[in-house]
Design a protein that fits this description.
The chain is an alpha+beta fold. It has 22 helices and twelve strands.
Length: about 525
């Protein structure tokens, strides 16, 4: 490539990686040249020059995060508008064949309807990092559009209009610069549809902060495309605090560095697998995340019920609160169970960290409960609700959540069975330990697409995207007969659940008996 040879030589030389590159003048010159040579920038970016630069200089850059974000934004801006630049600057006419051969995640023909086109069109799709591009054909000579895969929601759809096949919908956020807010896409087979959905989920970048709780559950940096019942960074933050800061004075009370917290927020929003090194910044991040959720963990619609709980006599408060918690969406419920177990461990070291129950509730309450904007708001009443509810959860944890919080959730007790189509990432809490293809029983579900499932007497949360209908009686019988583990809870644990949540205990005794009966029948039929 003989275009801009000076820049090419600089990039190829070791001097390009020297710290002098980041001198103010030199840096601006390089950026100017990169902007002038759009395709060259794209060429080198896609051949991991950028990653090599990051690797060599990361110990010298004070703010690696902003550097990464800057170059990523430059790349996206240039690449998404490359044809405009090419036309106006008259550097290139089309992307060279070498550019078209660059690596991509997935490619193939699909039928599309959406954007500016309201009829079905057969297009060749290329999935890259953060974008789904479509072309007239597989020669890739004529690109017709790009769908940004950022905060993209994917759902399986029923049969569409006048087009046989297997459908899924891509819905884009209002901030997207795509040609339309949604695209209906049709694959030829169900297997192809699921393959595309899984591939898109793996490159989808999800904004975590200032979003709903359920958005963060789509992010798993180590296993992209795998759902988690609790946000990945919350688990990592609590693990760090449990191992390093339980005895630290003023934990959750003292504020961390705002710059460190902002950097962590930016990295998490980029779906980077962050590491924690400062306790106060870590607790500040957790409080900020909960406080900036679009809907609080205890949800706006429960504010009247929470006010009622605070106003009734103390003996009635715990049963009412337990009933409310069990009716929360599954992710909200397990988040509270996991987070308050951590707060209990902090309280157990109150002699060292000076964080007694009242101190903890003052710090945490405002991040869990607040009134919806536009609703009547009495600051004193709201603060009172925050402290009483948080105190009840800390002082009555075993009664509210029991030794197995999933068993205390409000279950239907149904016998709906599914096939688990994706392996769950069991390194994270409350995930189901079951192999892909296992037959599982969903005993509870919520309106946000989460279920509590049982496999081999093990419990876990599973997103409905990871479940499929069972295809045949033989598949069902074979899957059930393979489950032979005995009930894992001890008699004492079952008694505790029965004492604190009797309706759940009775329900699960019936469930267990049903499963055992089914297993015995399945074993006889398949034996």
């Amino acid at each position: 490539m003989k275009i801009f040879p000076t820049l090419s030589q600089k990039i190829s030389s070791s001097n390009f990686f020297s710290a002098q590159f980041f001198g103010k003048t030199n840096f601006l010159i390089y950026i100017k040249e990169l902007f002038q040579n759009i395709n060259l920038f794209y060429y080198f970016f896609r051949r991991n020059i950028y990653e090599k630069l990051i690797k060599k200089l990361k110990i010298r850059i004070k703010n690696l995060l902003l550097f990464h974000e800057f170059f990523n934004n430059v790349y996206i801006s240039i690449y998404n508008n490359r044809f405009f630049f090419q036309k106006e600057i008259c550097i290139f006419i089309v992307i060279s064949p070498k550019m078209a051969d660059l690596k991509f995640k997935k490619g193939g023909f699909l039928n599309k309807m959406g954007g500016t086109v309201k009829s079905w069109k057969r297009r060749y799709f290329i999935l890259r990092d953060m974008s789904l591009e479509y072309f007239k054909d597989q020669s890739l000579k004529e690109q017709l559009g790009t769908i940004p895969i950022v905060d993209c929601t994917i759902s399986i759809e029923e049969q569409g209009d006048n087009q046989p096949g297997f459908y899924f919908m891509l819905k884009l956020p209002p901030t997207s610069n795509a040609k339309g807010p949604e695209f209906l896409i049709c694959a030829e087979t169900d297997e192809d549809r699921r393959s595309w959905i899984n591939a898109i989920n793996m490159v989808n970048v999800v904004t975590v902060f200032n979003n709903e709780l359920y958005a963060a559950l789509k992010v798993n940096p180590k296993q992209p495309g795998s759902y988690l019942p609790i946000p990945f960074f919350v688990v990592k933050a609590i693990k760090y605090l449990d191992e390093n800061a339980l005895r630290m004075e003023g934990i959750y009370r003292l504020n961390g560095s705002s710059q460190k917290i902002d950097n962590l927020v930016t990295m998490i929003n980029a779906n980077v697998n962050v590491e924690f090194s400062d306790a106060n910044s870590t607790t500040g991040l957790l409080k900020l995340y909960m406080r900036t959720l679009k809907t609080p963990i205890l949800r706006y619609e429960n504010i009247p019920a929470l006010k009622n709980i605070v106003s009734v006599p103390e003996p009635q408060q715990v049963p009412l609160l337990r009933s409310l918690l069990r009716s929360l969406p599954i992710p909200n419920y397990v988040f509270l169970a996991y987070f308050f177990a951590h707060l209990l461990r902090i309280n157990q070291h109150a002699d060292s960290n000076l964080m007694k129950v009242q101190a903890i509730t003052v710090c945490i309450g405002p991040s869990l409960i607040w009134s919806q904007e536009g609703q009547p708001n009495d600051a004193y009443t709201e603060s009172n609700i925050q402290q009483i509810i948080c105190t009840l959860m800390l002082e009555n944890y075993d009664k509210l959540f029991t030794s197995n919080p999933l068993m205390a959730y409000q279950a239907t007790g149904g016998t709906k069975f599914y096939k688990l189509i994706n392996l769950q990432d069991t390194k994270w809490p409350y995930t189901l330990d079951a192999p892909a293809g296992a037959i599982v029983q969903a005993i509870a579900h919520d309106k946000f697409g989460w279920t509590i499932c049982v496999y081999n007497d093990k419990w876990g949360c599973v997103n409905v995207a990871d479940l499929a209908e069972i295809s045949s009686n033989r598949e069902f019988l074979s899957g059930i007969s393979a489950q032979h583990d005995k009930w894992r809870l001890s008699y004492d644990e079952m008694s505790m659940i029965g004492l604190n949540c009797p309706e759940a205990s009775k329900l699960y005794e019936i469930l267990l008996q049903r499963l055992r009966t089914l297993r015995e029948k399945a074993a006889r039929l398949t034996g």
